[in-house]
Amino acid sequence: MTDSIDALHTEHHRLRMHLNLLEKDATHPLDFTVEHAHTVPSLVLRQGQALRSAHSSVRLDYDLMRQIVLEALRARIIALEEKLHGTVGGNKPIEHLQYGDQTEA
Questions:
Q1: How far is CA 19 from CA 41, 82, 83, in A?
Q2: DSSP classification of residue 57
Q3: pLDDT tens digit string along 26-84?
Q4: Cα separation of 90 and 13, whole Å?
Q5: Separation of alpha carbons 76 and 16, rounded Å
Q6: pTM of the full predicted structure?
Q7: What pLDDT is stored for residue 101 in this prediction?
Q8: DSSP tag of 55
Q9: CA R_g for the chain
Q10: Closest CA to 65 of 21, 22, 12
Q11: C-beta separation of 40 from 33 below 8 A
């Protein structure tokens, strides 16, 4: 396998584990960071909380953000599975996948 295929397998692995975690626990906190920021502020959104625009009363509640994250994970997994079709190890059962170095804030 090439390094790029290994990287795709690793990403696929992590995405499936993240999706599995969110599907099993409907209250699992959502962790975000701001890309391309000069600092790396983290945001943890928990059930019952919402993001609110600094310029209006527009709110993105936990349930909406959770659905967005779930759909984004599923879409990326499908895209990777198409790229990895026919490669070795592309479709490992979820029981054989392991969590990365995840921590909860």
A1: 23, 18, 19
A2: S
A3: 999 999 998 888 887 789 999 999 999 999 999 999 999 999 999 999 999 999 999 88
A4: 9
A5: 10
A6: 0.77
A7: 45
A8: S
A9: 16
A10: 22
A11: yes
- SS3 label, residue 74: helix
- Residue 43 tokens, joined: 């945001």
Residue type, 36: H
Phi and psi angles of residue 31, each rounded to the nearest 5 degrees, phi first: -105, 135
How many angstroms separate the CA atoms of 25 and 90, rounded? 25
Work out the angle at residue 104's Cα, subtended by the Cα atoms of residues 101 and 105, and round it to the nearest 5 degrees: 125
6-30: string of b/e by CB count within 10 Å (b at 16+)? eebbeebbbbbbbbeebeeeeeeeb
* Identity of residue 56: S
**Beta strands 50-52; 59-61: pairing state:** antiparallel
Place of tokens 């993240």: 18
